[in-house]
Amino acid sequence: MRGYYDEVSYNVNITAKNMHLFLMRAIASYDVTPEQWSVLEGIEANEPISQKEIALWTKKDTPTVNRIVDVLIRKELIVREISAEDRRISLLSLTEKGKIETNELRDIVEASCEKMFAGISRAELEQLTTILKNVSANLE
Asked: Which whole-number Å values give the CA distances from 47 to 1, 43, 74, 123, in the listed order?
């Protein structure tokens, strides 16, 4: 079984890298990385949201989220505002430009996923998701 686990681990790693590259190429014309996309998507789904909450939502560490947020602010895709309830908390929201680009990016990402998962049934994708969640749980 030893070699089998190595092969599975290798294939998962290579597939994850290839999926990342595929998505990166698909959205490259927007000058947004997959990591930035995940933050934009999280902000849109939960806005206004704190940087701490977006780090939890995207499963990224705080320094990484801070860097991504700074870039997205410079690109004028998001804004940071002080919370009215707690002045220690900064809340993130999409700008109008950010809303437009997020909608356009979502269409590209969904089309990319359709290509990535072509020929794979919904049941198989659900099974794959369950397996990957179980592996992740074993790593915690």
From this structure: 47, 5, 19, 32
CA–chain centroid gap for 7, Å, is 26
The domain that contains 32 carries what CATH number? 1.10.10.10
Domain count, the chain: 1
Give the CA distances from residue 63 to residues 27, 52, 88, 108, in Å, rounded to whole numbers and listed in that order.
24, 10, 17, 28
Which residues constitute the domain of residue 63?
Answer: 2-139
Q: Residue-wise pLDDT tens for the chain (140 aa)?
A: 557 788 888 999 999 999 999 999 999 888 898 899 999 999 999 889 988 899 998 888 989 999 999 999 999 999 999 878 888 888 999 999 999 999 999 999 999 999 999 999 999 999 999 999 999 899 88
The answer for residues whose C-beta is within 8 angstroms of residue 78's C-beta and 6 or more apart is 40, 43, 69, 72, 92, 93, 94, 95, 98
